[in-house]
Write a structure and sequence with these properties.
This protein has one domain. Helix 1 runs antiparallel to helix 2 and helix 1 packs across helix 4. With 134 residues, the chain is mostly helical.
């Protein structure tokens, strides 16, 4: 990992990244315990890793990356995202939003607040996304 993303990721962990990554892991564990939630658990674990170290990576739609629709990017992905939103998505998005507001109070925290806002959007609709190097 280059020096700048490494430095930003270390600061990120201190300024809310660890807190929100733990929230994603908790959501993934709860989904995994239900057995029915296993597809959402996998996505939540992937995004938890992204939430822990977001700089140097980005989330993109899987169908725009591969050029093909699949199970998670079609109608079933839409249904899965709606279920995710009701079960955990809005809570995680709210956590990212509140953390972003707290960080935006300081000038130094504004870039981290912006990253939390991006993650809030992903928290609302994670199915069909893939994490790739930036």
């Amino acid at each position: 990992m280059p020096v700048v993303p490494l430095f930003l990721n270390i600061l990120w962990i201190v300024f809310g990244g660890l807190w929100m990554a733990a929230g994603w892991v908790l959501a993934a564990v709860v989904m995994a315990i239900t057995i029915i939630g296993l597809p959402w658990a996998r996505a939540a674990f992937n995004i938890a890793a992204y939430t822990l170290l977001p700089f140097g990576q980005k989330a993109v739609r899987r169908d725009s990356l591969t050029g093909q629709t699949d199970f998670g990017t079609g109608v079933f992905g839409l249904i899965g995202n709606i279920i995710w939103f009701v079960l955990a998505g809005w809570r995680l998005a709210l956590g990212h939003l509140l953390t972003a507001i707290a960080l935006a109070v300081t000038i130094i925290g504004i870039p981290f607040a912006w990253a939390h806002l991006k993650l809030a959007g992903i928290a609302l609709w994670p199915i069909g996304k893939v994490i790739v190097p930036a």
